[in-house]
From TrEMBL:
The gene is CNTNAP4. Residues 58-239, 245-422, 668-833, 884-1077 form the Laminin G domain. The keyword Transmembrane helix applies. This is Contactin associated protein family member 4. Its main location: membrane. InterPro entries: ConA-like_dom_sf, EGF, FA58C, Fibrinogen-like_C, Fibrinogen_a/b/g_C_dom, Laminin_G, Neurexin-related_CASP. Belongs to the neurexin family. Residues 460-511 form the Fibrinogen C-terminal domain. Residues 424-461, 834-872 form the EGF-like domain. Gene3D superfamilies: 2.60.120.1000, 2.60.120.200, Galactose-binding domain-like, Laminin. Residues 1-52 form the F5/8 type C domain. GO terms for biological process: cell adhesion; nervous system development.
């Protein structure tokens, strides 16, 4: 239970306070511990307890005895068992019940290490079945001498196992519904173990109460000496009390001081302890006659005995390991003259102290568990702090210590102890660590190890991965392999897929059936079934499909005398099955139940009588290829083919990957127009673990984002002030608040991300990338968050302090609330929210412009020299000798004069007083002409590499003057490395930057304006008149090498030539091919930085960088070369196969087939011949 049962008493002498326990409890004894007294009155208490009659049948087993019950064979059911009992014990191991059969089946309930194990073996009931072993574990620390209830219910394949309030449910597979068991069952032990018992076991030592098997009172039958029950060994029908009294060391300040003897030559001390802590003082005793002492400590789960004396080497003994496992461990310490020994759980370790001729004498006081305050004058030392745990069976010099007399103050001394009970608790039961996190604990808390789970946080609740490719894209990530966690902090785990970041983010999910598969010799009585296994579970796929805006899958069916539908009765002969596990007979399009193929929808089947090509039933290859896009039926999980049993009948199929784009939940939003407006949803259930995340943007200074109330519990997230976001909550321990303060304002009308989490360990709040704030949960306080009102979003139940602005992608425990759907029927709240570019516009790079979309945004790269989803992909080209690209501004004027294009500003009458030029290049030739801009008035700009390798920029803005020359001769620029040039001219001043590290400002004397720009030339120029000699020489040679991202203001000539989106005034002469300047940049540091700048923006691999980026560049180059070689070989093979087919057709003088049939057969046979040559890893890169 989540609460500690504490009750407030009366405030005066007359009033009566009543408490009704819910749920009711069964107990023989009640202990009341006063926590505090009324400060205004005297100490006193009167208590009355009302209860009900309780019938109890008890049997006491001594560890060697047991009960054997023999069934009435007529009433025996092989598929049903109901067993209930209560037990208590101080032993951690023992068999509670066992039943087995002659064929090896058995059912066993075993106490092992203080936990209950239910073992059910259904192994040899049928010789052909695979053995099934069910191992269910429940409970912890059940050897605490308290009553524990057990209920086992087995009905066929269903098993319910309950221990106290904890329950496990199991649903078996296969032949489990039948257990071949014998006609007797034993309780407390296994009288004669059969071959099925292969595990170590002990008899149970303790008490059983109200033991029932299928409604039969076993203990009552034993008391009546019924012949159905045989008592083996010493069995009594009353429960004996344990002989030991435990003591609990509650804190690091706890200690137990016991007097010792000064006269005995041999001193011994024994005790048992249990704890979760790795370190603490177990025993200290001061040496007599000489200074020094003996320390027995727990260090890192091991027992360490240390005997020390100032000025001499200490004697250390280490024994045991993993002693902080919560189990009872026995310790025996013996000191006799100059000999020491310590035994842990019966294993003895001894040593001779190096104290010289002196004998070891102990005496005085023995301090167990800790040391008193130094003010008491004790010399006790506790280097690792006090012990927190339990001890029992303490004896000194073979004399058992009576702890009850210590409690009464007649023997020894103590502080902060709880005597006569062991207060240890298992803080890992129930296990609050989610998603497979490993729970470890100390005396006062637990810790979750989230390594390799894909989650983080105090309870491994928060996924470290994004929920979709769309979310990764809007973090600025490039295409690559990513882990996706579609339900966030929900129960589904992450899985690996490929994200193709285009204008939209495509999600690509592969399966095992991407190869072309041929099918023969099938009929309706013996069909072929192809099963597709995906890289994700069906639940994970369904969550991904739910988030996506659109999904599709390409299914190709090749056929040769293989029909999809029977001509006789119209029954399907081949079909496919989707995730709904229903038969689907349509083979293309978004409309289900059409029973048509793509050709039938488009009206171009080879036989107009049918809706599918294959139904024409021709003795030649054809195909029905369809793009399935009805999302509720995807993905395809099976394909069934049953018409390939006739002569010359054959079929083949191929299924493409599941493709999805978009994330409709990522952009789901609502706008709140007034402070009184809100959206309401059902109560949020996050009792033990709750997380809430959302985006918001606003111009208001304050407002409540979200609120949910209970009777006393509540949660609330609000903008407290322009710079403060606050998360407040109460789970019964009083209200708590966590606030994050920002150095900048949150009400800047940009998107901000908020994430809060509350669990049994702590509460946390994070806003954007600001440091998160946490609030630890109070120790042993209430942990259940109990809410009962509606969930209010954007406001409160009082309609005050509402939020003005937009909320987007609101998620609670991984589930996204549909704000838009609710907003459509709510006044003063609008579905959707525009203005994404204010936050995400910075992702559009290199001059790309952010454009708003109904759901999100896109980067418009029209006037950028780059392409890609964020205008970050350089367009590069390799120029062979004598080639050129010429962009005509005057032709462009006529093409765009009726548009609003920026390029239209470059026309014959326009005078340019400023321009910006950017490009990158790599070459080894000198001289070279990199860029040339000419005007109708014999003005020009040339960027060349001179004979000596220097870079020269020549501006001639006046036809009557010599050009201004800017010369960069600090290095040879024709060195085969990638170099970057940027020129910005403002009137008569030009700013030039080379390789981002060399900058120069030049004042031009030839003029301030560029009149009537005519051409921009990359590469060789044919006209050399009216230009200076150096430019003419470079222009005659042209350019051989790579040019990249060339841009003159808003004009990108390479992009216009290689990626034309509309008619462009570009002329290409010679061989200019798209290439990558960066890929061949060698070891140049600058080029490497530019190559990986986009990936660097994504962060490290832990920050969700695609796994593909972790592959070294050498491996990528080698893989690329291998792929190219394989591709060439495959092409040659395909051509050879096609030629061979044509020869056979010619020799046989077969009639000419239709173009459709010929194409289908060629494609099929080519794929059949080459499919085995391409492995799965290579094909993943051909999306």
């Amino acid at each position: 239970k989540d609460c500690v049962w504490g009750f407030s008493g009366n405030a005066n002498a007359d009033s009566v306070v009543y408490y009704r326990l819910q749920p009711s409890i069964k107990a023989r004894f009640l202990r009341f511990i006063p926590l505090e007294w009324n400060p205004k009155g005297r100490i006193g208490m009167r208590m009355e307890v009302f209860g009900c009659a309780y019938r109890s049948e008890v049997v006491d087993l001594d560890g060697k005895s047991s009960l054997l019950y023999r069934f009435d064979q007529k009433s025996l059911s092989p598929v049903k068992d109901i067993i209930s009992l209560k037990f208590k014990t101080v032993r951690s191991d023992g068999i509670l019940l066992h039943r087995e059969g002659p064929s090896g089946d058995h059912i066993t309930l075993q106490l092992r290490g203080g936990k209950l194990f239910l073992l059910i073996n259904s192994g040899e009931a049928k010789l052909t079945s695979i053995p099934v072993l069910v191992n269910l574990t429940l409970g912890s620390l059940l050897d605490d001498q308290h009553w524990h209830s057990v209920l086992i219910q087995r009905l066929g394949k269903q098993v319910n196992f309950t221990v106290d309030e904890h329950r496990r449910h199991f649903h078996a597979q296969g032949e489990f519904n039948y257990l071949d068991l014998g006609y007797e069952i034993s309780f407390g032990g296994i009288p004669a173990p059969g071959k099925s018992v292969s595990f170590p076991h002990k008899n149970f030592h303790g008490c059983l109460e109200n033991l029932y098997y299928n409604g039969v009172d076993i203990i009552d039958l034993a008391k009546q000496q019924s012949p159905q029950v045989i008592a083996l060994g010493n069995v009594s029908f009353s429960c004996s009390q344990p002989q030991s009294t435990p003591v609990t060391f509650l804190s690091s300040r706890s200690y137990l001081a016991l007097p010792g003897s000064f006269e005995e030559d041999e001193v011994s001390a024994t005790f048992q302890f249990r704890t979760w802590n790795k370190a603490g003082l177990l025993l200290f005793s001061e040496l007599q006659l000489v200074s020094g002492g003996l320390l027995l400590i727990l260090n890192d789960g091991k027992l360490k005995l240390n005997l020390y004396q100032p000025g001499k080497l200490p004697t250390d003994i280490t024994a045991g390991a993993g002693l902080n496992d919560g189990q009872w461990h026995s310790v025996s310490l013996s000191v006799k003259r100059s000999h020491l020994s310590v035994a842990v759980d019966g294993h003895v370790t001894s040593a001779v102290p190096s104290l010289g001729p002196e004998q070891v004498h102990l005496g005085g006081t023995y301090y167990f568990g800790g040391c008193p305050d130094i003010s008491f004058g004790s010399k006790c030392k506790s280097p690792l702090g006090g012990f927190q745990g339990c001890m029992r069976r303490i004896s000194i010099s073979d004399k058992v210590v009576d702890l009850l007399s210590v409690q009464q103050g007649t023997f020894g001394n103590f502080s902060d102890l709880q005597i006569d009970s062991c207060g240890i608790s298992d803080r890992c039961l129930p296990n609050y660590c989610e998603h497979g996190g490993e729970c470890s604990q100390s005396w006062s808390s637990f810790h979750c190890n989230c390594s390799n789970t894909g989650y983080r946080g105090a309870t491994c609740h928060n996924s470290i991965y994004e929920q979709s490719c769309e979310a990764y894209k809007h973090r600025g990530n490039a295409s690559g392999f990513y882990y996706i966690d579609a339900d966030g902090s929900g129960p589904l785990g992450p899985f690996l897929l490929y994200c193709n970041m285009t204008e939209t983010a495509w999600t690509i999910i592969q399966h095992n059936g991407s190869d072309l598969t041929r099918v023969r010799n099938t009929n309706p009585g013996n069909p072929y079934t192809g099963v597709f296994q995906y890289v994700a579970s069906m639940e994970q796929l369904q969550a991904t499909l739910t988030r996506a805006e659109h999904c599709e899958q390409d299914l190709t069916y090749y056929c040769k005398k293989s029909r999809l539908v029977s001509k006789e009765d119209g029954a399907p002969l081949s079909w496919w099955i989707g995730r709904t596990n229903e038969t689907q007979t349509y083979w293309g399009g978004p409309l289900p139940n059409s029973q048509k193929c793509t050709c039938g929808l488009e009206g171009n089947c080879i036989d107009s009588q049918y809706y599918c090509n294959c139904d024409a039933d021709r003795n030649e290859w054809t195909n029905d290829t369809g793009l399935l896009s009805y999302k509720e039926h995807l993905p395809v999980t099976k394909i069934v083919i049953s018409d390939t049993g006739r002569p010359h009948s054959e079929a083949a199929y191929k299924l493409g990957p599941l493709l999805c784009w978009g994330d409709k939940l990522f952009w789901n939003s609502a706008s709140f127009d007034t402070e009184a407006s809100y959206l309401h949803f059902p109560t949020f259930h996050g009792e033990l673990s709750a997380d809430v995340s959302f985006f918001f943007k606003t111009t208001a200074s304050s407002g409540v984002f979200l609120e949910n109330l209970g009777i006393t519990d509540f949660i609330r997230i609000e903008l407290r002030s322009p710079t403060v976001v606050t998360f407040s909550f109460d789970v019964g321990n009083g209200p708590f608040e966590i606030s994050v303060q920002s150095p900048t304002h949150f009400n800047d009308n940009q998107w901000h991300h908020v994430r809060v989490e509350r669990n049994v360990k702590e509460a946390s709040l994070q806003v954007d990338q600001l440091p998160p704030k946490t609030q630890p949960a109070p120790a042993d306080g209430h942990v259940l968050l109990q809410l009962n009102s509606q969930l209010f979003v954007g406001g409160t139940a009082t309609r005050q302090r509402g939020f003005l602005g937009c909320i987007r992608a609101l998620q609670l425990n991984g589930m996204t609330l549909d704000l838009e759907e609710r907003a459509q029927v709510t006044p003063e709240v609008q579905p959707g929210c525009r203005g994404h570019c204010s936050s995400y516009g910075k992702l559009c790079r290199n001059g790309g412009k952010c454009r708003e979309r109904p759901s999100g945004f896109l980067c418009d790269c029209t006037f950028s020299a780059y392409t890609g989803p964020f205008c970050s992909n350089e367009i590069s080209a390799y120029f062979e000798s004598g080639s050129s690209v010429i962009y005509s501004f005057q032709d462009n004027y006529f093409l765009s004069k009726n548009s609003s294009s920026h390029a239209a500003s470059f026309h014959g009458d326009m005078k340019l007083s400023r321009e910006t030029i950017k490009f990158s290049f790599r070459t080894t030739r000198t001289p070279s002409l990199l860029l040339f801009v000419s005007s109708s008035y014999k003005e020009y700009l040339s960027v060349i590499i001179a004979k000596n390798g220097s870079l020269q920029i020549r501006y001639k803005l006046n036809r009557y003057q010599e050009p201004d020359v800017v010369n960069f001769d600090f290095k040879n620029m024709a060195d085969g490395q990638l170099h970057h040039v940027e020129i910005n001219r403002e009137g008569g001043v030009a700013f030039v930057e080379i390789d981002e590290d060399t900058r120069r400002q030049v004042h031009l004397s030839s003029g301030r304006e560029f009149s009537a720009v005519k051409f921009l030339v990359l590469g060789r120029i044919s006209e050399h008149s009216d230009i200076d000699q150096e430019t003419a020489l470079a222009g005659a040679q042209g350019f051989t090498g790579c040019l990249s991202a060339v841009q003159l203001s808003h004009v990108a000539p390479l992009k216009a030539a290689l990626h034309p989106s509309h008619p462009a005034p570009v002329t290409v002469t010679g061989h200019v091919t798209e290439s990558s300047c960066v890929a061949q940049a060698g070891t140049d540091a600058t080029s490497r930085e530019r190559t990986h700048s986009f990936a660097d923006h994504s962060g490290t691999i832990d920050d969700k960088e695609p796994l593909a980026n972790a592959i070294k560049s050498d491996s990528a180059v080698i893989g690329g070369l291998i792929a190219v070689v394989i591709f060439i070989l495959l092409c040659i093979t395909a051509i050879a196969v096609r030629i061979y087919q044509q020869k056979r057709l010619y020799k046989r003088n077969e009639a000419k087939r239709s173009e459709n049939v010929d194409s289908a057969e060629a494609v099929l046979k080519s794929e059949l011949n080459i499919q085995n040559a391409v492995n799965e890893n290579q094909k993943e890169y051909f999306f």
